[in-house]
Design brief:
EC number: 2.5.1.47
Protein name: cysteine synthase
Family: Belongs to the cysteine synthase/cystathionine beta-synthase family.
Enzyme class: transferase
Structural class: alpha/beta
GO molecular function: cysteine synthase activity
Radius of gyration: 19 Å
Distance between the termini: 55 Å
Order of helices and strands: EEHEHEHEHEHEHEEHHE
Strand order of the largest sheet: 1-2-10-7-8-9
Length: about 300
């Protein structure tokens, strides 16, 4: 009998959905988190990374041996570096130089070429430079911010998984918003199953810096974003997100990044407003890629 063993690409998705036990307190609501850090490269971005490359191949836009280019704040870059290694592409990743050392090291480990822009230029500067390199013939920009294969990955996998794992009982979905691919794809799927499901997006308060999520200037708003797919947007303070992130590790055994702490903080806020709800928040990555930033060094919450 021939045994068909999976490849690493086959291990993307089908992540656990687990119940929070202590943080919710005394409530009639069920608070669940989806552990996207269990993906092979450690984040929810593994899904769109493989999707964007695979569908570009199917269209004939790229072929093995080509060079790919992408602007990233971290997780997408790590995921794309992994996917490029799997499929045989060179990849140039452009990111702000204030991103964590672990993120830079992970991208390099997968063989990516890193190009850093200054903190002041930020992701907007990184996106502009990616397009400039493409115009110079250096490679092909996948453009997670405008590429429909980004939300498609979540429409085809993350959304159906959540619906199946909750037995169709989900009432609220909460996700941080960066490229907005996760919330766009999951919203589309869940609303098709039950239009009453509430879709809640998270963005940082003015002055707060939460890795992976942004308040985009209008001219840089991701083209994949459709405001009609989000029922409510919550502004999150950096301090609150970091506090809940640390509590998740110490009280729930869930080790994650700051944007995930923010998503759970928003879910806790929502839980105080309703009863008998089934809420799902995305834990988008693992906490080990933030250790060098010192966010886990603060006094216990």
């Amino acid at each position: 009998m021939t045994v068909q063993f999976p490849t690493i690409a086959d291990c993307v998705g089908n992540t656990p959905l687990v119940r929070l036990q202590r943080l919710p307190g005394n409530t009639s609501n069920t608070l669940l988190v989806k552990l996207e850090g269990n993906n092979p490269a450690g984040s929810v971005k593994d899904r769109p990374a493989l999707s964007m490359i695979s569908h570009a191949e199917l269209r004939g836009d790229i072929q093995p041996g080509d060079t790919l280019i992408e602007a990233t704040s971290g997780n997408t870059g790590i995921a794309l570096a992994m996917a490029a290694a799997i499929k045989g592409y060179r990849i140039i990743l452009i990111m702000p130089d204030n991103m964590s050392a672990e993120r830079k090291a992970a991208m390099s480990a997968y063989g990516a070429e890193l190009v850093l822009v200054g903190k002041a230029e930020g992701m907007e500067g990184a996106r502009d430079l990616a397009l400039k390199l493409q115009a110079e013939g250096r490679g092909k920009v996948l453009d997670q911010f405008a590429n429909q294969d980004n939300p498609r990955a979540h429409y085809e996998s993350t959304g159906p998984e959540i619906w199946r794992q909750t037995g169709g009982t989900i009432t609220h979905f909460i996700s941080s918003m960066g490229t907005t691919g996760t919330i766009m794809g999951v919203s589309r799927y869940l609303k098709e199953q039950n239009p009453a499901v509430q879709i809640v997006g998270l963005q940082p308060q003015e002055g707060s810096a939460i890795p992976g999520i942004r308040r985009w200037p209008q001219e840089y708003l991701p083209k994949i974003f459709d405001a009609s797919r989000v029922d409510r947007i919550i502004d999150m303070a950096q301090g609150e997100a970091e506090e809940v992130m640390r509590r998740l590790a110490r009280e729930e055994g869930i080790f994650c990044g700051v944007s995930s702490g923010g998503a759970v903080a928003a879910m806790l806020r929502l839980s105080r407003e309703v009863e008998n709800a089934v809420m799902v928040a995305i834990i988008c990555d693992r906490g080990d890629r933030y250790l060098s930033t010192g966010v886990y060094d603060s006094p216990q919450a």
